[in-house]
Amino acid sequence: MRPLRGLVALLCVAPLGGARVRFCCKTELGANALGDPACGRQDLVFVGQRFGPRPWSPAQVAELAVSAGTNVLFLVPLRLLAARGRVADACSCAGLVVASTAYHWCDVRGTTLLGMTGGNWHRLDNIFAFVSFAALVPLLMGDAGAPGGPTRDEVDFVRWATLFVGLFFQELNPWNVLCAAAPVAFAFACYAAWRRRRPPARDGRFATREYRGAVALAAAGGACFALGLDDARESAALFHGAWHVCNAGAASLFVVALAPRGKPGGGA
Question: 30, 68, 150, 169: which one has the fewest Cβ atoms less than 10 Å from its Cβ?
């Protein structure tokens, strides 16, 4: 416990030891189609916020409503996860709601929140997003320790290894979509490798209407996400909001289908 207390003390004191810097944000530096490598580099920083908050406008209010306001829908899967005792998944979902809302607020308003720009919050948003996506893998595997299910070590490996891979790619370039997708692809590659070592699944969870609906919403959400990547498109914010709506619906249905109430939250 002594090393842990020392680490906590160091983290508390560190912000007082030097000048505050804030990382660049796409609202201040341009980006190419794959994301400006310079904007993704942590060693390129500036001190302070270059621009003041943008003046309010009806368009800005509408963009906040569809990009930040739609995050309230994630409270539904958050409640479902908490009710099933899946603590880790519930925490990642809560972090996603906070980081995504803060990111869109700072990005649309051109301001900071808790001393962090939209660029800072965007990194956190990406981290909680891929951790939340990776949380689907333990759900697909089933309850840890149950017959035919994963071991606790296998569940922990998927969670922690995905986080480590994702953090690496976030530092490499958070504005590159491929860097955001890499940890999710890694998590599902782990699931595919795990599935190959198991007998063919005869699990009724995958034959339910809820599961099929979740897959359909996830596919629709992916299409909305792709359409919302083009900032030059006037409807980009609308498509991004639709991505939030589809993801919240898919997450809720996945939880209902794969972790029925009354079962232990072994994958939490």
Answer: 30
The residue type found at 70 is T
Q: Please state, in angstroms and rounded to a whole number, the distance separating the CA atoms of residues 96 and 81.
A: 14
- Strand ranges inside 65-168, DSSP E: none
Q: Provide the percentage of residues in the chain whose pLDDT is more than 70.
A: 75
pLDDT in tens, 18-59: 333 334 444 444 444 444 444 444 333 333 455 567 778 888
List of residues 6+ apart from 108 with CB closer than 8 A: 54, 60, 63, 64, 67, 68
**CA-closest candidate to residue 30, choices 40, 42, 21, 39:** 39
DSSP assignment string, 177-245: HHHHHHHHHHHHHHHHHHHHTSPPP--GGGGSHHHHHHHHHHHHHHHHHHHTT-TTSTTHHHHHHHHHH
pLDDT tens, residue by residue, 82-116: 999 899 899 999 999 999 999 999 888 888 888 88
